[in-house]
Amino acid sequence: MSKTWKLSLFAVVGATSLGGCAHPAAARPEAPAPAPAVKPAPAMDAPEPADDRAAEERKAREAKDLEALLQGTVIHFAFNVAELTPESQSRLQTLAEAMRANPGVQIRISGNCDDRGTEEYNLALGQKRAAVAKKYLADLGVDQARIDTVSYGFEHPVDSRGTEEARSANRRDEFTPTRGL
Hints:
Blueprint: H1 3-21, H2 24-27, H3 49-72, E1 74-76, H4 86-101, E2 106-112, H5 119-139, E3 147-153, H6 164-170, E4 172-179
Parallel strand pairs: 2-3
Antiparallel strand pairs: 1-4, 2-4
Helix pairs in contact: 4-5
């Protein structure tokens, strides 16, 4: 290769290399990217009326459920005794949970007997049956002041036939709300 040719090649390569480095944009450092805009957190205002309405609806539904539970809770007793059966204890445990969740509710426990025995004896036995249920609820954490008791003896039978099945149905405690629903 001739010397001239080499010099020309050198000049072309050098100019290309230098031209790329001399570009004004390449010589400038890049500007930092702008920081993303931070949106302020929404202000915590008072609950919307819809939230209040939902809470009221939930409370009304719970009260209705409790009332249904109370009216559906009946416990039965064996002849001539005031002792709770395991089934009765289970029902009272469910009732106690509901009452602890609704502290404004008060109830009445009505003790009832079958038609055998004297009026005085059955009134006393009905009172013992109501008292044993009240004590059990109190032992489960329900304030006794929220529970009234009454005895009807054999005055309010649910089944007036004289059969053993009817008498068994009449030996019971019934639960009714008196306040707070």
